[in-house]
């Protein structure tokens, strides 16, 4: 099974994804590590990515997901996947790929981004993330104001894993 942990920058994808994977003894993968140097530079300079910028990144993620499915791997993938069309590219198998959406308010997430250090994604880019966000309707929805421990528990109960 593959769990996609999605949401805007700073919603907690890496934090929750990692803890979820650890608790399940599954592999954890971060879509951030699939970005090209050009994309990272753009974000570092406070420029939001376009659909065209994201396309090769999504294709690489799609290839990785295909491989994991073929190998029957259990993986938690932290990935923004903000638009429905992006998610369509990643959910290659509805039975074996589940989406967890980390939902939070602009204010709460902005505060978290402002106190986070050493990351190329700044609080200034957050509005652009909310602007393009298309909330999923077919996902497990999680309130990010809860503690990571509770969130992980909630996800496991919802997915019965
Ligand atoms: N449930 C939570 N409660 C309190 N703090 C949290 C929670 N989840 C994440 N954080 C903190 O919020 C900040 C953002 O989290 P994190 O880096 O995991 O988000 P992200 O969605 O992976 O961000 P990005 O997409 O920019 O990589 C971090 O400093 C993290 O420690
Ligand atoms: O789609 C995007 O704009 C990007 O994936 C960003 O969301 C960042 O990669 C990530 O959130 C920061 O680490």
From TrEMBL:
GO biological process: D-gluconate metabolic process
Protein name: Gluconokinase
Superkingdom of source: Bacteria
Native organism: Aetokthonos hydrillicola Thurmond2011
A GO term, aspect molecular function: ATP binding
Keywords of this entry: ATP-binding, Gluconate utilization, Kinase, Nucleotide-binding, Transferase
GO cellular component, one term: cytoplasm
UniProt family annotation: Belongs to the gluconokinase GntK/GntV family.
Pathway named in the protein's UniProt entry: Carbohydrate acid metabolism
E.C. code: 2.7.1.12
Protein's UniProt keywords contain Transferase: yes
Pfam family name, one: SKI
Catalysed reactions listed for this entry: D-gluconate + ATP = 6-phospho-D-gluconate + ADP + H(+)
């Amino acid at each position: 099974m593959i769990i996609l942990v999605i949401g805007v920058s700073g919603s907690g994808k890496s934090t929750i994804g990692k803890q979820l994977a650890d608790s399940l003894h599954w592999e954890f993968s971060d879509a951030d590590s699939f970005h090209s140097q050009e994309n990272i530079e753009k974000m570092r300079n406070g420029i939001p990515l376009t659909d065209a910028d994201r396309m090769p990144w999504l294709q690489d993620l799609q290839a990785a997901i295909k491989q994991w499915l073929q190998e029957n791997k259990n993986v938690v993938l932290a990935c923004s996947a903000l638009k429905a069309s992006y998610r369509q590219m990643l959910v290659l198998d509805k039975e074996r790929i589940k989406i967890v959406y980390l939902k939070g308010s602009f204010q709460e997430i902005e505060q978290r981004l402002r106190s986070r250090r050493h990351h190329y994604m700044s609080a200034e880019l957050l509005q652009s993330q909310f602007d393009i966000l298309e909330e999923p309707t077919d996902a497990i929805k999680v309130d990010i104001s809860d503690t990571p421990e509770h969130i992980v528990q909630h996800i496991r109960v919802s997915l019965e894993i």
